[in-house]
Write a structure and sequence with these properties.
Elements lengths: L13 E5 L4 H6 L10 H7 L20 E5 L13 H18 L3 E5 L1 H8 L7 E2 L11 E5 L10 H19 L1
Parallel strand pairs: 1-2, 1-3, 3-5
Antiparallel strand pairs: 4-5
Length: about 170
Amino acid sequence: MEEVPDHLDHGLQIVFIGFNPSIRSGELGHHYANPRNNFWRILHNSGLTPRLYDASEDGELLKLGYGFTNIVARPTVGAEDITREEYTQGRELLRAKLEQYRPDIACFVGKGVYTEFSRRTKADWGFQEGVTPVVDGVREFVAPSSSGLVRMPMPEIVDIYRRLHDFTEEKET
């Protein structure tokens, strides 16, 4: 199965970083394409996007200043199918991407994604204050996974993503 292409560029406000693509995303070639994944609804409901986008429009979000990548590129049924070797390689590749493109914010879509990347044992929701970022100058933000399997109530998830929206709005004024 093909890897889902990254959507990265210089000058991005936010790069959203997932564990890895789902099988459905791999089949369609777009990020967060599983219909049970709430990612696109969360972005819209938090104010990060002006309308509800479809996964097939993921490349269009570059125009809004948002990019997409994963810590591991290989599509799998679940994150439990990712090997330690893939995480090790993925950490180095992700660090290189963040160093190359230097987004304002690296938004990790799930605490596990952040802890795998940073090698820290825990993280709070939101901006990671009081810790040195893995890539100097790139702010780290931890958001809940958008998977339909997440048990956190949707309004709580949206509120955490809304912090990103509020931060980017404040930065523009």
